[in-house]
Design goal:
heterodimer, A: mainly beta, four-stranded antiparallel sheet, B: mainly beta, six-stranded mixed sheet
């Protein structure tokens, strides 16, 4: 399996622009997670989905952030409009399920976002 | 809410030596999972080891082992025979095992410990 795939790996944009980050989870995984990593706040969960349905979005910082999962193999995280404080590494992770051995979350390589 | 604390921002070890990274957590739950993740300069998050709270036996994975002290809410990682490839940021993480839905399935991470391995 190719693992969790994220694109782009790097994104540089200007303040006010719309940014879309993409994620393809591991096939067969029921759960998908979006995390943000910054020096100040460390790794934070933004939102997670179960079977394409958002379960907990309490970590989404504000209305400028939105996430969708239109099908089991694709998710997007959108920031509109982007601000310099959104600069961070955004990780997508997927999990085969939460019972028994399925507790591990497999992380993608991350997208480094820089907002100028 | 659960919190995870890693009190050592940085650690260093000589190659082939042993190093222990500390992690404490705060929770009122009795059933949960604890993890150590490794993040090398490539920034890929890699699971190192996992511990179920209901298991008294400490988890081991080759050169990596944990010292899980449930009463003390402590979960340290020991790396034996350290190798240059072990150099990375190490994150301790907590996940609830209770309930369904809600925020129970999220990973709560510590701030990390940067491990340097000296040749």
């Amino acid at each position: 399996d190719a693992g969790v795939i994220q694109s782009p790996r790097h994104e540089v944009t200007e303040m006010g622009q719309e940014v879309t980050l993409r994620c393809k989870p591991i096939s067969g995984h029921d759960y998908l997670f979006w995390y943000r990593q910054t020096m100040m706040r460390g790794l934070e969960l933004l939102i997670y989905f179960n079977n394409n349905v958002p379960i907990d979005d309490s970590g989404m910082p504000e209305d400028r952030f939105s996430a969708k999962m239109p099908n089991a193999s694709f998710s997007t995280l959108k920031i509109q409009p982007s601000e310099p404080r959104d600069s961070a590494v955004y990780f997508c992770a997927s999990s085969p399920g939460l019972a028994g051995a399925g507790n591990e979350q497999f992380f993608g390589p991350g997208t480094r976002l820089t907002v100028l | 809410a659960q919190t995870v604390t890693q009190s050592q921002p940085e650690m260093s070890v000589q190659e082939a030596e042993t190093v222990t990274l500390s992690c404490t957590y705060d929770t009122s739950e009795s059933d949960y999972y604890l993890f150590w993740y490794k993040q090398p300069p490539s920034r890929q998050m890699i699971l190192v080891i996992r511990q179920e709270a209901y298991k008294q036996q400490n988890a081991t994975e080759n050169r990596f082992s944990v010292n899980f002290q449930k009463a003390a809410k402590s979960f340290s990682l020991k790396i034996s025979d350290s190798q240059l490839g072990d150099a990375a940021m190490y994150f301790c993480a907590y996940r609830s095992a209770q309930g369904s839905g809600g925020s129970n399935y999220k990973l709560t991470f510590g701030k990390g410990t940067l491990l340097t391995v000296n040749p």
